Amino acid sequence: MERRTLFAGWMLPAVLVAPQLAITVLFFLLPAWRAFGESVRATDAFGLNSSFVGLANFAELFQSSTYQAALVRTFVFCIAVTCLAMGFGLLLASFANRAIRGARVYRILLIWPYAIAPAIASVIFVFLLQPQIGLLTNLFGRLGLDFNYATHADQAFLLVIVIAAWKQVSYNFIFYLAGLQSVPRSVIEAATLDGARGFYRFRTMIFPLLAPTTFFLIIVNIVYAAFDTFALIFALTAGGPGTATETLVVKVYRDGILNLDIGGSAAQSIILMVIIIGLTTIQFRYTGKRAG
């Protein structure tokens, strides 16, 4: 039976909702409205003069080869991070779900990396892989391997993918572990009695039951890779060398703050907002159908 809370008047519900509404208005709606206003105007570098240009900023973006390259780069980055983070998260969750001694300790240790701030994660890898002082870089040099993400574009792009995926593995691990623990033991036992074992049992019986969790994590990981990796990338490479690691969210900062292209940067922000709203809508519609 569905249970509902009834209030005697409207005052208490309004008071309870007011803080969240205030946060939404102050930190989302007003900045979004300001970004939309700037996206249809051309403003000089000092912010003193501006003129209405309509959709010219958007048209200029989609005609720009650098923006098109950033779109492709972000797409590849999101797919790579999502696949790596979800794959290793599912693998670790499968091992942690087994009845082994010290399983609780292993689970806690696997969750810890998610608590590390993105900028701190970048600093850790700087100490490991910085071209001059990195611990692993010195080891690579002794082995005759040339690793320098500050000058090699492919190495820098691969490095930010690995770090971003490593940072997100723990998040996926938590959800996959919860999903695996919710699989009825009777289903696994019945599959075992029918001769389904090992990877075949996982592929045909267990993984299909994790489909809602998997779809949810796909959307969350794509959003994370596209929007929440700015601090990680900027602290490590600042989008370089050149534009090798310049994803869309990094390009917004570079164009707006460093290059002082306010209108173009605002237009990019609007496009990013539309993308994330679209992804969130898909997620809610799918999960709503699954719940129904």
Automatic annotation (TrEMBL):
Membrane topology field: Multi-pass membrane protein
Keyword Transmembrane carried by entry: yes
The ABC transmembrane type-1 domain, residue ranges: 71-283
Classification via Pfam families: BPD_transp_1
Highest taxon above the source species: Bacteria
Main location per the UniProt record: membrane
Subcellular location per the Swiss-Prot or TrEMBL entry: Cell inner membrane; Cell membrane
A GO CC term assigned to this protein in UniProt: plasma membrane
Record key words, sorted: Cell inner membrane, Cell membrane, Membrane, Transmembrane, Transmembrane helix, Transport
Gene Ontology biological process: transmembrane transport
SUPFAM superfamilies per UniProt: MetI-like (SSF161098)
TM segment ranges: 7-30, 70-96, 108-129, 206-227, 266-286
Task of the protein: Part of the ABC transporter complex UgpBAEC involved in sn-glycerol-3-phosphate (G3P) import. Probably responsible for the translocation of the substrate across the membrane.
Database matches in PANTHER family: BLL4140 PROTEIN (PTHR43227), SN-GLYCEROL-3-PHOSPHATE TRANSPORT SYSTEM PERMEASE PROTEIN UGPA (PTHR43227:SF9)
Subunit structure: The complex is composed of two ATP-binding proteins (UgpC), two transmembrane proteins (UgpA and UgpE) and a solute-binding protein (UgpB).
Protein family according to the UniProt entry: Belongs to the binding-protein-dependent transport system permease family.
Protein name as annotated: sn-glycerol-3-phosphate transport system permease protein UgpA
Species of origin: Acidiphilium rubrum
